[in-house]
Specification:
The chain is α+β, with helices and mostly antiparallel strands. The chain has one domain. Strands 1, 2, 3, 4, 5, 6, 7, 8, 9, 10 and 11 form an eleven-stranded antiparallel sheet that branches.
């Protein structure tokens, strides 16, 4: 079991026991934590959960992009009591996002952001450095949410999830972060419950605000966005919020070369059989 898989098991057990990390490490720590947020834009209620995974342990060039990696986070009690009925009967009324942020420097790699989106890699790569460096405005969403988490501020022994309404300032998702990183991203970071999204790592490519940001999509074979042998398509990693509230991260396993050879041979054989059956 790799490091990420082991971490996922630990997170699941901790939340089930009601003892997950209370505060979400924010952008000022230099190693932010991944979070899940779910919100109802009509009722103006949002939910946030600490996934207890630090950015340094979840970089796209490490085990987080390894084929076959799967993490499962079961729905906690607060998510079920807040949105359980909607998830089961009307999931499209809810939207969700997974992200993380680190905003402790300037220039190349001075800031780091992780974000879900259904936008293509081509679209995400149009993100400019100037606007990317302003994603950090969403840090108020994390700091204000931390104040709402159970237990004393800074307590690491309470359950790591909380809810907020529009009157709660930046702790409410649409006030503190919004669908496009405080209106600075070229992509929508959210999707309806029941849907899957890809995951991206974004960091400034240089000190030039006019330059495009450095973007890496999770699940690629390497950091150069190389194609993997899957019919000339990308084996992108996905996050999925299920209609039962379960959150899953998955990188599809890439078939071995021998498997592709057998598959191709099988197709050729079927083609030959079909041709023989054609009337003369």
């Amino acid at each position: 079991m790799n490091k990420i898989k082991s971490l996922a098991v630990a997170v699941t057990l901790a939340i089930a026991a009601g003892a997950a990390h209370a505060d979400i490490a924010d952008a000022t720590t230099g190693n932010g934590e991944l979070f899940l947020s779910v919100y109802d834009s009509v009722a103006k209620v949002s939910y946030i959960r600490d996934l207890s995974i630090f950015m340094d342990d979840f970089l796209p060039t490490g085990t987080a992009s390894a084929p076959g990696t799967t993490l499962t986070f079961s729905a906690d009690t607060l998510l079920n009591t807040t949105f359980g009925a909607q998830l089961a009967s009307n999931p499209s009324s809810l939207n969700w996002v997974v992200g993380a942020m680190d905003n402790t420097g300037s220039g190349a790699n001075g800031q780091r952001y992780l974000s879900t989106t259904n936008a293509s890699l081509t679209t995400v790569k149009t993100q400019g450095n100037a606007n990317l460096t302003q994603f950090g405005g969403a840090n108020s969403f994390i700091t204000d949410s931390n104040a709402n988490l159970p237990g004393a501020f800074g307590d690491v022994a309470a359950a790591g999830s909380a809810t907020a309404g529009s009157a709660d300032g930046f702790a409410y998702f649409e006030n503190g972060m919004g669908t496009n990183w405080v209106a600075k991203s070229v992509f929508n970071a959210t999707a309806a419950a029941g849907q899957s999204m890809s995951f991206f790592f974004l960091t400034p490519s240089s000190t030039s605000g006019l330059a495009k940001a450095s973007v890496t999509q999770y699940g690629f074979a390497d950091a150069t966005d190389s194609l993997v042998p899957n019919g000339n398509t990308f084996e992108a990693a996905t996050w999925t919020l299920g209609t039962d509230g379960t959150l899953t991260y998955q990188v599809a396993a890439v078939p071995e070369a021998e498997t592709w050879a057998l598959f191709t041979a099988g197709l050729l054989m079927l083609g030959a059989v079909a041709r023989r059956k054609l009337p003369a």
